[in-house]
Amino acid sequence: MLVSLTVGKVDAGVAVLLTEDKRLIEFPSILLPPDIASGSIVDITVARNHKSESAAASAFHALQSDIFRTFGQRTPSAPILRCRNATQTSVVLEWDPIDIATAELRSLTLYRNGSKAGTIPKPTEVHSTKLSGLAVDTEYTFHLVLRTSAGTYSSEKLKVQTHKMTDLSGITITPGHMNATLRESLQKTVDRIGAKVVDTVRIDTTHFVCTEGRGPAWEKAVENNIPVVVPDWVKGCEREGRIVGVRGYYLNADPRLRQIGPGQGQPQPQQQQQPPQQQSITSPRTEITPPTPERPTHEKEQDDEAAPPPPPPPKDDEEDSDDDEAPPEPKMQPDEQKVRTEDMKPGADESEDDESEEEDEAEGSANAKAAEAGLPVRPNPGQQAKVEDEGDDASFQEVQL
């Protein structure tokens, strides 16, 4: 196709071309002949290059196929989470090596009960982790989340139940330096309680048992903060029937700190049987008074229930009855003690005399104050009785017999 155009203006890099219908076309001036100026007419031939178009399309399809074969056929896989070991307060989780295919790894995160527990460092190298500080006999739910440039992939949720204090199956022991006899005894004890023994210190090792603190295994246990205890700790767990504290079973710990109690299968120590004489010991505060020998106790109780209580006798009768009292009955030891304590108390007559004297003094002072104030004075009944007695005496003297 041949097109004739008129050069309108030529600039440094762009030339303005005019069509026959007065339209402007900006055309690179470097493609025009060098002697072109304003007003020149140029012929431009335009044609479709089918050969070049086919070559470009073929190259583009080859590139797309190469990208698909490299990145589109394999995708990252979701991680598979497992429980390696569980104790009363810790859980060890492990998973298969992650497969991110041709994608780029972003992060690998562990979740506990739906909340983020932490990010796994070096996920391509680390394939297990340990969680401590958990509650005893409690169920937890864990899952992993893998984030890559090709998308996010989550593992299936794993439910783990921590052990009870009486469940010793989660104990994993790594033995250290000890004699052969002690090691054999330790192996038998571990088999009886249902625990495990591993030769090397691993992430699921719960206790390192030895009698001497030396060797590379001991150094690794100390580095990983694994409790280093003596073989007696395993014996203590078997005896108690539950996991016991390690404070008193460290290598340099005082044996007196060990809390040793009877096991579950052992009977409680019975108290020593004392002879019958020592068993029937009465309290020193209990006083036993025998009944009066004159009449039986049950007859007295029947008489008391049948007859109503007699009225209290007058004072004169009481005085007479005191003179005519029968000889005292023989008293037992508790009665004699009571009599002795009563002898030490002041008599009733003396206390009454003291009280009467105090009342007379109080009334005398009250009468003196009333006389000073000009108020009528009320005579004391005791004084009035004395005056009457004196008058009777005077009248008695006047009588002639």
From TrEMBL:
Signal peptide: none
Acidic residues biased stretches: 316-327, 349-363
Alphabetical list of InterPro entries matching this protein: BRCT_dom, BRCT_dom_sf, Chs5_N, CHS_Export/Cell_Fusion_Reg, Fn3_2, FN3_dom, FN3_sf, Ig-like_fold
Composition bias, Basic and acidic residues: 332-348
Positions of region (Disordered): 256-401
SMART domains (alphabetical): BRCT, FN3
Pfam families referenced in this protein's UniProt entry, alphabetically: CHS5_N, fn3_2, PTCB-BRCT
GO molecular function: protein dimerization activity
Cellular component, GO annotation: exomer complex; trans-Golgi network
BRCT domain segment(s): 163-251
Listed Low complexity bias regions: 265-289, 364-373
Domain named Fibronectin type-III: residues: 75-169
GO process terms (BP): conjugation with cellular fusion; Golgi to plasma membrane transport
Taxonomic superkingdom: Eukaryota
SUPFAM superfamilies for the chain: BRCT domain, Fibronectin type III
PANTHER family attached to this UniProt entry: CHITIN BIOSYNTHESIS PROTEIN CHS5
Stated name of the protein: Chitin biosynthesis protein CHS5
